[in-house]
Design a protein that fits this description.
The structure is a single chain. With 157 residues, the chain is an alpha+beta fold. It has one domain: Sandwich (Immunoglobulin-like), CATH 2.60.40. It contains three helices and nine strands. Strands 4-1-7-8-9 form a five-stranded mixed sheet. Strands 3-2-5-6 form a four-stranded antiparallel sheet. The longest helix has 14 residues. It is found in: Secreted. One of its GO terms (cellular component) is extracellular region. It holds the Pfam family Self-incomp_S1. One of its GO terms (biological process) is rejection of self pollen. Belongs to the plant self-incompatibility (S1) protein family.
């Protein structure tokens, strides 16, 4: 029986292993986010929705989000347990025209808004690809990772 080494059992492919290793190491060195790693020709983004009703700990917030091609669905967020946040990620389209919208309900109040669009994408700079939405008893606030306060405020209706 002839024992073969790892490098010789794939004739013609020995030169490919160093290239694969260099690509994997490069991804770790430049610190690409998981969502961006799967977005080949476009930028990857993440939407995070938090129930920040600290003064209303047993309040449930209901919401429904979708884009033209992707339904996120209906969800409940309760501040009092581990389900106080929800997130999803996606790759932008080649044309940069992805639009996600959400409708939020809290008791008899509601608000509908675009949680991601071209304008919001342009505001994200550097390695920041995350958009935060804080659900509060007074309003819904859009924030970014490095923002010092709300970038946009949506009062309950």
């Amino acid at each position: 029986m002839n024992k073969m080494s790892l490098g010789t059992n794939c004739k013609g492919h020995q030169g490919l292993w160093p290239v694969i290793l260099i690509v994997i190491c490069s991804l770790h060195i430049i610190n690409i986010s998981p969502v961006e790693a799967r977005c080949w020709f476009t930028k990857g983004y993440e939407i995070r929705i938090h129930n920040d009703m600290i003064l209303e700990p047993f309040s449930n917030v209901k919401f429904h989000c979708a884009s033209k091609d992707h339904i996120i669905g209906y969800h409940n967020l309760s501040w009092s347990n581990s389900s106080h946040y929800f997130l999803w990620d996606f790759c932008d389209s080649f044309w940069g025209n992805i639009l996600y919208f959400c409708r939020f309900w809290w008791g008899n109040k509601q608000v509908a808004l675009e949680v991601f669009n071209r304008k919001i994408a342009k505001e994200l700079v550097g390695d920041n690809y995350i958009v935060y939405y804080a659900i509060m008893s007074r309003d819904v606030e859009r924030e970014h990772l490095d923002s010092l306060g709300p970038l946009e405020v949506f009062p309950w209706q």
